[in-house]
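2024-03-11 09:14:02 DEBUG pipeline.ingest accepted 1 chain
2024-03-11 09:14:02 DEBUG pipeline.ingest length=161
2024-03-11 09:14:03 DEBUG pipeline.predict start
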Amino acid sequence: MQKSHENWLLKGDRNTDYFHIIVNGRRRRNTIFSLSCGDEMIEGTKNLLKHATEFYKDLFGPAAGNLCKLREDMWESSEKLTDIDNFILTRPFSETEIKMLFSVKPNKAPGPDNIPVEFFQHCWEIVKNEVLLLFEWFHDNKLDVQRLNYGIITLLPKVVG
């Protein structure tokens, strides 16, 4: 253990044969070459990706037959939105509403786009028109938001030992 630690300290970060042996060995240990699914063995990158995708779609997707229909007469009229409330909720976004972004405290974690809120706060006059157009497209159902609904799934191989 002492000798390997010494080798890593001396050669580990440099672009040496030792570095490549360590990195490639780690990559080989962490690569999934096959999966066992019942009696079936799944091999090959394409088949593994397809199997993992289908498995997690089934796992996180809606259960079959899980559709609930609500009757129109289920709520009293006092419990429903008024026409005015409905109008307010469905009208296009205003610049004032969008600028509520300025009330978010700086230094917060960025969203999935990795753009921190400070960017929009400091560069508002530069990006304002594009942001307003984005909200307009969203409101008019012209913006494909399908790619925003995703998760990152990482398969972790079992380590023997």
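2024-03-11 09:14:41 DEBUG pipeline.report Residues 85-148 form one domain.
2024-03-11 09:14:41 DEBUG pipeline.predict end
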